[in-house]
Known about the structure:
Blueprint: H1 16-22, E1 29-35, E2 38-44, H2 57-72, H3 82-91
Antiparallel strand pairs: 1-2
Amino acid sequence: MPLIKVKQNFQITLPNSLRKYLHIAVGDYMEVEKHDGELVLKPVKLIHPDQAYFYSKEWQEGEIAADNDIAKGDVLGPFENIADGLNALKTAK
C-alpha cells in the first residue's frame, strides 16, 4: 500500500500508479467517505444532465452499430440536395 503525506493546506498527492490504474486526471473529482475509521476515496466522473443521454446503454449500442455500418460502407449518400436524401431514406432497406 503506497504511503502519502499530508502537506500544507491538508493536500495529498495520489501516487502515479494509482492515478493510472483509476484513470484519474487533473481536474477530476473524488468522493470521500468515512468507513470504520478510514477515509475511502472514490473517483467520480461528472456528466452534464444535457449530455447524459449520450452515456446511456441504448445510445452507446447505437453508436457502435453506426460505427460498424460506416466501417462496412453500409451508408447512404452523399446527396446533391435534401430531396434526394429524403428519397433515399424512404426507399432504404
